[in-house]
Write a sequence for this structure.
């Protein structure tokens, strides 16, 4: 079929999706802050607490170990890791590393603090644990070489540079997850939606311009699909209707603005609501609290 024929098929995946930046608009509004806290061997039993809004990114450089989790957290109760790997915990989850004291595994570890905590869209959408062999993710070698070099000896600016390298490592990992959602067992949510070439176009537009006058028709038009096909595919990939996702995204952004000291009226104007009352009503439906009560609870 010639390329010109594709232009008349509303459900055809547009070629522009290949070069679409699916992460920047989201991560610019809801950042993830990495902080190096360990480099070197871990011997015996090492315990990592679960704290609100905090995840972990561990790099097993050499050695092997057993990872254990309490039941109910969404991760397997026991995981054996016997090759250099990434262990990514996007949500708070208590975990314990076990390895023989005589065979200490060599690690570089960072905490991940998600803006908005549990409201961070990626933290909600990712699996409780992602374990990936280092060789499985293309492009990691240079980042890891720099990271390991920075953590092997103390130099000026070491911690700052290591934190930034962990930021780079996280983006590379998220890129891989976007391209391999089934292999990573990504459940329906924003990450699976961004993995779909057509739905991604609409999600990126929503993330970058949340205050626009969005209707089902305009969302479907961004995806190059009919309204009915778009609505069904969006629900399948993201796990909720387009209007519900837009409301949750706007409420998450409103919460960020409130934490920064902005007024409800300003948030309403920015996010496309007719007035502060309209935003307050949607905010209360989504969070169970009025904006004022929610902000007090955050404090």
């Amino acid at each position: 079929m010639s390329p010109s024929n594709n232009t008349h098929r509303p459900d055809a995946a547009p070629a522009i999706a290949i070069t679409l930046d699916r992460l920047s608009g989201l991560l610019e509004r809801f950042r993830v802050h990495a902080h190096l806290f360990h480099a070197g061997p871990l011997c015996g039993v090492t315990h990592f607490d679960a704290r609100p809004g905090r995840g972990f990114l561990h790099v097993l450089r050499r050695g092997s170990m057993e990872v254990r989790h309490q039941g109910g957290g969404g991760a397997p109760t026991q995981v054996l890791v016997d090759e250099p790997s990434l262990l990514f915990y996007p949500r708070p989850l208590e975990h314990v590393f076990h390895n023989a004291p005589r065979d200490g595994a060599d690690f570089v570890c960072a905490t991940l603090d998600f803006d908005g905590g549990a409201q961070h869209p990626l933290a909600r959408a990712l699996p409780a644990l992602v374990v990936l062999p280092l060789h499985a993710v293309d492009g990691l070698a240079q980042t890891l070489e720099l990271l390991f070099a920075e953590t092997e000896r103390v130099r000026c600016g070491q911690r700052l540079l290591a934190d930034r390298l962990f930021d780079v490592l996280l983006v590379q990992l998220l890129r891989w997850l976007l391209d391999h959602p089934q292999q990573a067992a990504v459940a329906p949510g924003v990450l699976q939606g961004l993995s779909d070439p057509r739905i991604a176009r609409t999600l990126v537009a929503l993330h970058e311009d949340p205050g626009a006058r969005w209707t089902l028709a305009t969302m479907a038009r961004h995806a190059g699909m009919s309204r009915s096909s778009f609505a069904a595919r969006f629900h399948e990939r993201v796990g909720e209707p387009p209007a519900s996702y837009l409301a949750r995204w706007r409420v998450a952004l409103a919460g960020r603005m409130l934490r920064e000291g902005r007024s409800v009226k300003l948030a309403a104007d920015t996010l496309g609501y007719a007035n502060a009352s309209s935003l307050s009503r949607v905010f209360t439906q989504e969070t169970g609290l009025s904006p004022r009560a929610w902000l007090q609870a955050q404090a």
